[in-house]
Amino acid sequence: MPNSEAKYAALIPKRILLMKLRHHGDMVLTTPVINRLHQHYPDAEIDVLLYKETLPILSEHPALSNIHVIDRSWKKQGVRYQLQQEYRLLKAVRARHYDLVINLADQWRSALISRLTGAKVRLGFDYKKRQSPIWRAGHTQLVSTENHSVLHTVEQNMSILSPLGIPTDNAQTSMHYSPSDKVFCQQLLHENQVSGEYIVIQPTSRWTFKCWDDEKFANVIDGLADTGLTIVMTAGPDKKELDMVRKIQDLTHYPQVVSVAGQLSLTQLAAMIDGAKLFIGVDSAPMHMAAALNTPCVALFGPTKMQHWRPWGNNNTTIWAGDYAPLPAPDSIDTKTQQRYLHAIPASDVIDAARSYLHE
C-alpha cells in the first residue's frame, strides 16, 4: 500500500501496545517493528504484551515504556487464580488508554485483549485460520498474509505497519543488555582465564531435531585451533543441553575451550555474544540474538522453514542440511524426535564459513 493511501497516516498516537505471544527467537524478530514505531512516533510511549518467559529478550529495550506479561503457569494454579490474573492484566492494559494496538499474535486471546483495550486503531493479521467475526471484531483493520509464505518473519511482522504509512524496508533487529550484564561477562571470562578474542559456540536447541552431531562440533573446534582464539561454549540450563556441551568438550583436543553453559541469563548471553569475534550455532534464539547484535554468525539449519527463520541481516552465513541430503517437510516433523537432521552438514564447510569471517 503506498504511503499516500495509508488509512491511518495522520494518526499521532500517544501510547502504543504491541502484542506477540511466542518463543524467544520470535521476540527478537519483533524488534524491527518496535524500532520503526519509535522512529516514526518518537514521542509515543510503546508497551509490549508477551509471555513471561520471553521477557528478558525485550527487558532492556530502550524504546519500551511498559511490559505486560502473561504467565503460562497461571492455569496450573486453578481456574479462579487464572481468572484473577487475567482480570488484573486487562485492568492494567485498559488503564494505559492506548491509541494504537499492533497485534502480531495469532491467538484468540490477543484479539479479545485488542478489543478490550478500547484503542481506536487496532491492527492485526488476516490469518486464514482466524476467519471469524470474533477475530475481525478484535481489530479495526486486518492486514493480508497472502505473501507471508515467501517472506522472512521480520518482513511478515513489518507488513503490519503498512496501513499506518510507515516504511517497512531496511528493517533491523536489535538486542539490548545492561552494563551489569557486560561486567558479569567480563568477570566470568576473567575467571576462566579468557583474556583475548573469543568465539561463542552454542550447539544446543530445546529441540533435538535442530541439533548437529557432537563429534562434528568438536571437529570444528579442532579445525579452528590454529586461530589461537578461545572457544566459549554456551547453552541453556537444561540437563540435556549441558550434557551435550560436556560431550563436545570431551571430544575436542583443543585446550582453549571454556564452558559457561547454564551460567548466563539471556541478557548476559547477549553481552557475551556481543563481545565475540564470531558466533557459531544452530537455529535458535541465540542465533537470532547474534544477528541482532551484528556479531558475525554461522548458522546451521535443518528441516525448519529457512526462508522464515534464517538469521536476519548481512553479517551471517546459513548452512542448510538440505543442500547435502534430502530433508523431511518442515510441517511433518515430530518436534519430540531425538533424530538430528543436520547430520549431513560436513564439518569442513562450517570451518570454511567460520574462517571467512576470522580472516576479514
What can you tell me about this protein's structure?
The chain has helices spanning 24-28, 31-40, 55-58, 79-94, 108-117, 133-137, 153-158, 179-191, 214-223, 239-251, 266-274, 285-292, 306-309, 347-358, and strands at residues 15-19, 45-51, 64-70, 100-103, 121-125, 141-143, 198-202, 230-233, 257-259, 278-282, 297-301, 316-320. Strand 8 (230-233), helix 10 (239-251) and strand 9 (257-259) form a beta-alpha-beta unit. The protein has a six-stranded parallel beta sheet with strand order 3-2-1-4-5-6, with helices on both faces. The radius of gyration is 22 Å and the shape is globular. Helix 8 (179-191) crosses helix 11 (266-274). Helices cover 35% and strands 16% of the residues. With 360 residues, it is α/β, with parallel strands linked by helices. It contains 14 helices and twelve strands. The mean pLDDT is 96.
Protein traits:
single chain; alpha/beta; 6-stranded parallel β-sheet; 12 strands
Strand arrangement, major sheet: 3-2-1-4-5-6
Structural class: alpha/beta
Helix content: 25-40%
Q: Tell me the number of helical segments per DSSP (H or I, 4 or more residues long).
A: 14
CA-atom Rg in angstroms: 22 Å
Q: Please state the overall shape, judged from the principal axes of the Cα atoms.
A: globular
Query: If you average the pLDDT, what whole number results?
Result: 96
| Sheet of most strands | 6 strands, parallel
In terms of per-residue confidence, which ranges show pLDDT below 50 for 5 or more consecutive residues?
Answer: none
For the termini, the CA-CA separation is 40 Å
Number-wise, the strands total: 12
Secondary-structure element series: EHHEHEHEHEHEHHEHEHEHEHEHEH
Strand residue percentage: 15-25%
